[in-house]
Each structure stands twice: as C-alpha cells, then as structure tokens.
Amino acid sequence: MSEYNFSQIEKKWQRYWEENQTFKATATSDKPKYYALDMFPYPSGAGLHVGHPLGYIASDIVSRYKRLKGFNVLHPMGFDAFGLPAEQYAIQTGQHPAITTEQNIKRYVEQLKNIGFSYDWEREIRTSEPNYYKWTQWIFMQLFNSYYNYSTDKAEPIDALVRVFELSGNEQVNAACDEDTPAFSSEDWNNFNEQQRSEMLLKYRLTYVAEAVVNWCPALGTVLANDEVVGGVSERGGYPVERKKMRQWMMRITAYAERLLQGLENIDWPEPIKEMQRNWIGKSVGAELDFSIEGAEDKIKVFTTRIDTIFGVSFVVLAPEHELVEQITTDAQRAAVEEYVTVAKNRSERERMTDVKTVSGVFTGAYAINPLSGEKVQIWIADYVLAGYGTGAVMAVPGHDSRDYAFAKHFGLPIPQVVEGGNIEEEAYAGKEGKIINSGFLNGLEVKEAIKAGIARAEEMGVGKGRTQYRMRDAVFSRQRYWGEPVPVYFKDGVPHLIKEDELPLELPKIDAYLPTETGEPPLGRAVDWKYNGQYEYELSTMPGWAGSSWYWYRYMDPHNDKAFADKDIIEYWRSVDLYIGGSEHATGHLLYSRFWNKFMFDLGVVVEQEPFKKLINQGMIQGRSNFVYRINGTNKYVSFGLKDQYDTSPLHVDVNIVENDVLDLEAFRNWRPENADAEFILEDGKYNVGVEIEKMSKSKYNVVNPDDLVEKMGADTLRMYEMFLGPLEQFKPWNTNGMDGVHKFLKKYWKLFFDKEGNLQVTDEQPTAEELKSLHKTIKKVEEDIERFSFNTSVSTFMICVNELSQLKCHKRAILEPLTVILSPYAPHITEELWEQLGHTESISHAAFPQWKEEYLVENTFEYPVSVNGKMRAKLTFALDTPREEIEKAVLAEEQVTKFFDGKAPKKLIIVPNKIINVVV
Fold first, then answer.
1. Is residue 90 predicted with pLDDT exceeding 90?
2. Residue 516: pLDDT band by 50, 70, 90 thresholds?
3. What is the largest CA-CA distance in the chain?
4. What is the pLDDT of residue 582?
5. pLDDT at 1 > cutoff 60
6. What pTM was estimated for this model as a whole?
7. Is cis: bond before 505, omega within 30 of 0?
8. 540 within 8 A of 525, measured Cβ to Cβ
9. What are the phi and psi torsion angles at 242 (to 5°)?
10. What are the DSSP E strand ranges found in 120-276?
11. How large is the average pLDDT for residues 558-567?
12. Is residue 31 helix, strand or coil?
C-alpha cells in the first residue's frame, strides 16, 4: 500500500466501527465514566456546512482520548426534531413535517458518519418520536402535580399542599404562587367546589394556565420567546411580531430563581455565560410600595431598590400594557394614550430595553400619592417600562436615575435632588453613597441607613414591605402550532386536568392542513373527533421548542427504556454531563431551562445531580470567506479585482465552490446561472482574481462550504485536523479551504514513515535513539496537556513538528511510530486505525492505552553552542553537558568550519560560557 488512499481507508473503518459497535458504551462499568455531549442539532434541509462540525470534532477528540485513558465513555448524538422550519415547509407543500424531518435526519446522519465521529449510534434519540416525547409529557405532568415550598426550598407534591389547605388554609403557607393569590381559611377551602379548588391550585402548580402578554407572530401563527424576536420581527423569517394577551401554559421557573443563581458558583462554565444568566435572573433586594391613585380604590404596586430616594419621586410611570392604564386614563388623554399603547405593544421587549436614545411617553391625566411623603405626582405611561418585569410600574426619581432624568428633561417634569453629590443641572447623580437631603425623616442619613429606615417606616405605616425580587419572569410554555409535543391535558368546565400516566404518550393527531382553523384556533383544532374520552377538549397548543431539549441528556443514558425516562441505577452511574459543547446563543434559553428542569427532577428524587452540565465550552463560529466578482454597470462584463477601480462596477457574491486560490473558474461561472452564459471578462495576467470578505456563512452569500465535498477531495481526517488547526476552539475564525492542503500533506508525510517507495511496510524493531525518543515524548506530553485544557490547535502544530523531525531522522522504528499513532488517533482516527492494523494489531486502536511520557527522555543532555570568531557567529557545535572544558577547546580548534576564519593566525583567546556561547578571539 504505497499511496495514502484516504477514501478507501475511511470507508473501510467507518464500516468496521458500525459493524463492531466499537464505540458502544456500557450502562455500568468498573472503569471511571466520562460523558461528552454536543448540543444536538435541529436537522434543517440544508444539511451541515463546515462550521457545524467544529464543536463535534472537539468533543470527539476528547471522547477518543478518554477511552485511551481507560474511561467508559458515553458520547451520543440525536436530533432536536420538533420545530418551526419543518412546519413552515408543511404549510407551503402540505407534506407532513415528520416526512421532512426524517429526510433531513437521514442526511445529517450520513454527513456525521462521513466525518468519523465516535458516537454510540445505538443511543440516537429524536425529540419528535412518541417513545421520546412520552417522557417529556411525563415530566410536564410531574410539574403540574408539584408546587414549590420555600420553607423546605424544593418542589413537593401538590397533594401535600391540599392537605395543608384542608387543615389550616393558606395563610401560613410559604410557597411560590401567583401575585393575586387571595388568603383563605381551611373553612373556605372545604367550602370551595371542585372547580374553585382546581383554579386555586393553578396559582401554586409549577406549570399552570394564565393570561399572559406574549410575542404573537401572525405570519408564523405562534407565540415566540423573547430570544426569538429581534428588532420587533421574528428571528426566523423576519415577520412582524406584536404584543398580545393570550391564554398560555406557563412554567414557574421563578420559584427556582435563587437556586439557579447559587448553582452558577458550582459549575465550570464560561464567565460571560454565567453573567448573562445572573443578569437574566436579575436579583434585587429592596422594597415594594403601594402608591394610591387619586379618586380611585386601586393602588399602583412599585418595587424599588432605592427607597432612600422616595422623597425624590416626581412622577410614576406605568408600562403601556399595565392593567390599570385603561381605567385611570382621563377622557381628555384617552385618544393620545390609546394611540401610544397601540404603537408600544408592537415593539419587542428586547427592542424597548435596548433603545435608550428614544424618549417617548404620554400623560394619563391621573395622579398618584407618594406613600411616605404624601405628595401628589403625575402618572405617565412609557415603553421603557415593561409589563413583564417587576410590577410593570416604576417610581421615577429623575435626580438619581439617568433614564428618568432624560424623560423628565424631555417632558419638563420636576427633577428634585435628594442625595448629596453630582450636578443634577447637567445629569442624574446615580451614586449609591452620600447624605440624604430634602427628605423629611430621612434627612442626614447615609444611603444604606436611609434604605433600612425607609423600609421600616413603610412597614410601620402599612404601605410597603422589604422584598427580594427577581427580574426573570415565568416562562411561556405554549406554541400555537402543530409540530410539537401535545400537552397531556384536557379541559373540563374550563379547568385543565391531566390524562392518566398509562395513557401516555398522547400522540399528535392527523390534520388536513397545518394552519390555524378558520376561527383562529391552533392547527390541532383541525383534528377530527380529537377529544379525551370522546367528550373533553384537549389542549390545542403544543409545547415549545425547548421542551424536549430540557432533559434529553438523561434519555441518552437509557434510550430504550419504556418503563421510565431512564433507570435510576444507570442515572446513578452516569450522573451528569462531564463536557458539554455548544453555542453561547443558548445562554438564557436552553441552558437556563435545562438547569431548571434538572433541579426539579432532583427535587423529585429521580436524578442525583442538581446541575446537568459540569463543564461547558462555547465553540466559536467558523465564518464564511465570501468571494466577489465585479460587474461593469449596465453590462454583462466582469473585471478582475485588481482592475475594478478603473471601471464603474458593482460587487456581486459568487459561489466559493467555483473559486480556487482566489481565482475564478470562468467556465464554471458561465454555467453557474443562466444570465452568466454570455459573460465577458477583463483579466489580470490571464486570470480573473476575485475579491474576498469575511462574513457569516449563509446560502444567500454563496459562501457555504459543504463538508461532504472536502471529505471527498481530501478526506475526513484532513477536515477534522484542519478545523482544529484554524485556531482556539472558543474563537471566531474565517474559513479558507486553501489552507487544508498543508494538513493533507502532513498526513501523507506521516504515512510515508511507515512505507517505502514500493509500498512495503518499512517499520523496524530497532532500538530508538535518544533524539527520536525525545521527539516522541515531548509530543506525548504536549498533546496530553493540550487535550486536558481543550487547546486542540496547538496539538496539530505539535504533530507536524514531530513528523518533520522523525522524517529528518529517517525514523521507521516501531517503538516510536506505534505510540505516535495512538496519540494521533483522536484527531485522525481513520489513518491511524489503518496503520495500527498494518502494525499487526487485530483490535481497534480505540482499545489501546494512551502512552505515558517519561521525563528522562525530555531532560537535555547536550547543548548546541553557537561558535563566534571575533564576534561573528561562524558555526554551531553540539557537546554533551558534562564534556570537560579542555575537550571542548580541542574540538573547536580542530573544527575546519571554525579555523578557516583564523586567516592562518593563532587564536589569542578562547572564551567558553557554559551552555551559552563559545567565542574565539583571533
């Protein structure tokens, strides 16, 4: 086998791994366990591009390395298979989303297997399969049947709460519940009818139905999460999104706010991700105050962390969606308020939070009474206040808050100063230190003292109380679409009830179209005779995209169990994910929801770890390297990059697959699109040079590179090593196919260490030299250190240096090449499997042991001296470290490369600085 035939080798070993289940993980083992996981992909019709496998390659290297280190490795793959794209395609074509999804998954699996990942494919899961979503529904049912007990700081069965209600009502209950939950006695509870009890329990359940303000996208026919809305339009498709009140299923994630916050201290995650979650949870310690409304019985509830500034309140601001806006607005202001509300509610929360430059608002005509000062202040509405955060109302203190300051300046409202410091003529003083002024009983106190005194006075007067609040809101758990998990609920007298556990899974029914009904119900409303026991309406919304991904790592542990989502003993063995690799864009979505569900299941006693993912790495994006051609305006003539400034041109994206080394294939360009058939070109030196720009990889920019093409051209091992070679895993880096050639040449050079020109194996059993051992062992040491710290790009460089050194040494020795093959195998598994077999091994290289580097081979026992004659370096001579000075002198004076610069003269002095330099003075 003289030539490195990568195509034949890779197909052979991929077949071998599949037939022999080489990477099958056992449920239990005496070996230590290691669980490496990639965020599983949504299978889109476009398939993988070269950016997608980056994280997968990294986790595969770690998985293969850990196997060599003696670990029982779980490294699975599956598909997050419910989602809007398949449904949108179904709406356009009438094809069932399951068909599209199956086709897309088949394509993904083929591509993933082509790259040689060591997945245990026996464990593949798909969230859209009934045998999977049965357990998503089961977890939903446990949430429905649980409440959060703050006294024990965990979720407990709702039945236990019912028993408390029966004995003593809810006045002593310390539990997570709706803001408007009324107090009731045991007598009240026992007098409630079934419907009243059910409605009261919904105020405590960890999943519940409520009227909520949501992001409604009419074009997609569904509610979107905040992170799915960008600039007031849907992230997918760019459709308009409006704020709308709808009945939704909600998840009471707020009950876990403090535990989610504290848990961040115990996990090895990137600090930016942890900080994003801290900010999203948004813990604030302060006071809740009730502002009376002049001429009305209702009160405006306000939360503030700065009750010390209460005497500086010069107006109150409500969110446009606040429930009191309509009833407190005066007739004179009604038209202006309604117009403002209509505009504001169609801006996304993200847009309203980030747009700090635009100042807008409208006076309601109503007045509020400051609960501590008694002063009357105006009530405004403004879209910088959000209904979904806090109480949906703020007490505006423009002297000490920059946004309130800008608002007051814009509308000519008072700006009193109540904390010493700063110059409020020019800007708000937001300092958290200073003496309180102009504030009645708080005067003269420092800020911290004034906060305590303010809370005490509010509680004494009965107008407020100290409170810890979180910015995070309960999570919407409904989508008005078809392609998602059915909610295992039916409605009786308008109250939700669970189906029985032995009736799971509740499968998606057949429907005639994937659009909402004519009366505006979700698509499931089209199902014929789809009722519980033939009489009760099922929930017509489906679960959101994050449902199936919030627990999937447990199903990989025990994917074929039909009695439980995973066996308790198996969970006890695998415990949690040791390494999780995926995108940072999931910080406040998937990663937060997964932690929430995991903590709930821990409370339930069905899992053994509070946190799902011990270590998280966010891989950077591989960016596209776009190419451009330059068309002379008004013609079908294209001018080469270096000449474009001589003409009036427009740049146009061109398919990167018809460009090589930044030179356009003219014939391929003419065949690319019909309008190019008669294209003319103005060339440079007989070539058409294209322009280059680094952009996001996308089909619209024609810069998508298909990994299949590269595997076919240079092999999967080349692709794997090149993706790692591009730079540190976490960094963004541009793709350049041209660079792959260097990695491919390296693999061919490595291959040649084993075979002579005739294709005969030339590996010998000779004893290696000290130099060969040094080259090997420094490589083993560096590669091990690199993988342990997830620095894969530097390992590739190390391999290249080692192979160059061994090639120069003409090393073909088994004692060197065999361990080198083992340490290279996580990076380039196909070529190393082949060479391992050629070396006489009958088992996969995956069953080998990672070699240990030895310090004795790394200790320097020689030194290469630069030898200077009259200050000019003329030669380099190597001596053992223990060579006597006299012998060094003799050798230098006998070396022709040195003596030829003496010009026949005798040297005056010979200076030897040990392990540094030799200098001869003539």
1. no
2. confident
3. 120
4. 96
5. no
6. 0.86
7. yes
8. yes
9. -120, 155
10. 146-149, 154-157, 207-217, 222-224, 229-230, 233-234, 242-251
11. 96
12. coil
Q: Residue 822: enclosing H or E segment and its boundaries?
A: helix 814-824
Residue 422 token pair: 């700063």
| 674 neighbors 655 (Cβ within 8 angstroms) | no
Inter-CA distances, 58 with 55, 406, 553, 723, Å: 5, 49, 18, 9
- Give CA–CA dist 1/756, Å, rounded: 9
CA distance linking residue 439 with residue 457, whole number of Å: 13
User: How far, in Å, CA of 83 to CA of 185, rounded?
Assistant: 45
* Separation of first and last alpha carbons in the chain: 58
* 148 pLDDT tier (thresholds 50, 70, 90): very high
- Dihedral sign (CA 36, 39, 40, 44): negative
Lookup: tokens for 55:
């994280």
Work out the number of other CB atoms within 10 angstroms of the CB of residue 151. 10
Q: Are 620 and 726 in contact (CB under 8 A)?
A: no
* Nearest residue to 170 (alpha-carbon basis) of 188, 193, 156: 188
Pairing of strands 663-664, 659-660: antiparallel
- Model confidence at 914: pLDDT above 80: yes
pLDDT of residue 216: 79
890: Cβ contacts below 8 Å, ≥ 6 apart: none
Rounded Cα gap, residues 343 and 873, in angstroms: 79
Would the CA dihedral through 334, 336, 339, 345 be positive or negative?
negative
**10 Å Cβ neighbour count for 770?**
12
Give yes or no for a contact between 435 and 419, defined as CB atoms under 8 angstroms apart: yes
**Strands of 222-224's sheet, edge to edge?**
222-224, 207-217, 242-251, 475-476
Dihedrals φ, ψ of 585, to 5°?
A: -65, -10
CB–CB of 216/223 below 8 Å?
A: yes
Tokens of 765: 């059993």
740 has pLDDT over 70: yes
pLDDT score of 141 more than 90: yes
Q: How many residues does the chain have?
A: 922
CA distance 892 to 898: 7
Distances in Å between the Cα of 575 and the Cα atoms of 16, 35, 578, 604, 612 are: 30, 9, 9, 15, 8
How are beta strands 489-492 and 299-304 bridged, if at all? unpaired
The answer to whether 133 and 505 have CB atoms below 8 angstroms apart is: yes
Count of CB atoms situated within 10 Å of the CB of 60: 26
Query: Which phi-psi region, left, alpha or beta, contains residue 122 (left: φ > 0; alpha: ψ -120 to 50)?
Result: alpha
d(CA 758, CA 293): 96
DSSP string, 647-705: S-EEEEEE-GGGEETTEE-HHHHHHHSGGGTT-EEE-BTTB-BPEEEEE---GGGT---
* pLDDT average, residue stretch 784-800: 97
Q: Quick one: the chain helix, strand, coil %, rounded to 5?
A: 40, 20, 40
Note whether 513 and 289 are within 8 A (CB): no
Residue 347 has which token pair?
């801006």
For the chain, give the mean pLDDT.
Answer: 94
Whole-angstrom distance, CA of residue 919 vs CA of residue 874: 10
Return the residue matching tokens 């693999």. 747
Q: Looking up tokens 């240096």, which residue turns up?
A: 801
Strand ranges across the sheet with 917-921? 872-880, 862-869, 917-921, 909-913
Whole-number Å distance between alpha carbons of 179 and 880: 81
Categorize the per-residue pLDDT at 822 as very low, low, confident or very high, splitting at 50, 70 and 90: very high
